[in-house]
Each structure stands twice: as C-alpha cells, then as structure tokens.
Amino acid sequence: MAQGWKCSGLSWSADGPVLRWDGGRRSALTWGKRVAFGVAEGGGRTCVGARGHACPARAAVSGRSTGARCEECARLDRAHSVAADTLADDPRPYRVYLAWFGPGMVKVGITAHQRGSARLLEQGAVCFSWLGTGPLMAARRTEELLRAALSVPDRIPYGAKRAVRSVLPGSAAERAAELAELHARAVALGGWPESLDRAPYEPVDHVEVFGLAGLPAAVGEVSELVAGGSVDGRLLAAAGPDLHLETASGAVVVLDTRLMTGWGLVPADGAEITVPMREFKETSGVQDGLF
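Structure (tokenized):
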C-alpha cells in the first residue's frame, strides 16, 4: 500500500462489509477495527472507468463525486444498467422489494434474483421484504404500479438515511411496522403482471448486521478526500457504502467509501481526519468548532 493503492469500493459478504482494492485484495471490516489511510501527496482523483474497463482518457473527476466517473464513462455505465431500461430481453428472473430506512422512508426497487439480498445491504436498508419474482419487465411494471398507486419512491437520499441511524426504533417489530402496512396495501392492488409470482410478507432486519444497535449520533460526514489528507477512526457500524467512525476525540463521523475510489491511498499511522468535513446541522450546537 506504500506505493498507493486504489480502492474499488465497499461490498457485503456473508461475514459483513469488505473493502475491495484494485488487483483483487480485500480487507474485511469488523466492529472496533481501526480504519486509517492517507491520500497520496501531489496526486489527483481519476475516473474509475465503466463496466470493468479503464477510462481511456484517465480523466480527472471531482473529489465530491460518489460515482468517480467522467461524463462519458458515467453514460456508458448507466446505458448498460437495469435502471436505464435497456435490458428488456434479459432472461434472468428479478425480484421486487420494499425497503425501510427509517420512519417515513420506504422505497420500492428491483434486483436480479441471483444477487439475493446484496442490493439491500448495498443500499443500507434497515429492513426489507420481498414482493414478488418474475421477468425483468414484469418486475419493472410492478415497481411503477407501486410508485403510482401508493406514492412509494424508488430512491431515498443517503443524507436522509444517515440522519436517522442512531435514533431507530428499538425492536425489529417496530422497525418493520411501516413495511408490513405497505406490503399489505401493495398485494391488495389490482393490475399486477400475471407473470410475477407474489411473495408473502417476511421482513428481514439488518440492524445487527450493520452494527446499528446503540449507535451514537454522528456529528458530521467526510465531504471529499484531498491530496495529502488523511482519515482515521474506529469502526462502530457500516450500512450501505457508509462507515461510522469514532475519532480520537470521541466524535462519530460518517465516511462514504464511494469517495475513496479513484484516489491513490497510502498508510497513515497515528493520523487524524484532515480532509474536508460537513457538519450535521442538528449537532452544530453540541460540537461547536470541531471541524
């Protein structure tokens, strides 16, 4: 890593979160583990490419971008995604799901059946339940039906997800209450595609998986990495791409690991957080002057 490693993102395995590095190496993340790294001096952030191919221009990208792709690579990546509706002839089965991220935050989405619940872990869903399984376009029509009939969105901003992780209801039943009600309303709707096999309500809770039980409130988040900057903290929890880190001062901050991609990263022993931070407004009076 002394030569500058390239992070390719956070993924979720059966054992928990894992940081992936270019070249195939993986770093398992466990609660209490120290997460410390520096950003190589004098370097810049470059596009990570698309669909497994390097960016031909090695274009520079903004430090605040969570995609770490230049405009052309972002266009190519999205053009081959399920969200772009360009894969209508995909023969694989897809699942429709309802996911809950906190009070008043439920979304509908679809994922390839073969991926299991990986998509829900990647999004940081606190709990979820399947709605049905079928061909891609049947799953897509069901998703659109729920959005229109029940006013359920297909996206929840990450800022909203982060804001409530430390104040979630204490029991799995309480966390699943909104999910149960929406699932019942969804299956009662008419107009479902006949080729979609409906699934019974079976909530899955991720609070223990993410380490959210008893999580202290975060005071802010890393807004971007910069050359010569550093990050250091003890891992308290992880949800989706986010790491909740306890700093040397005892404050908790959130690091979106998508901000790590495209940079050359190096070891940082005894480092502090010296990258730009965004303080959460609701805690500004508690940690005045922290950043």
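The chain is about 20% helix and 30% strand. The mean pLDDT is 90.
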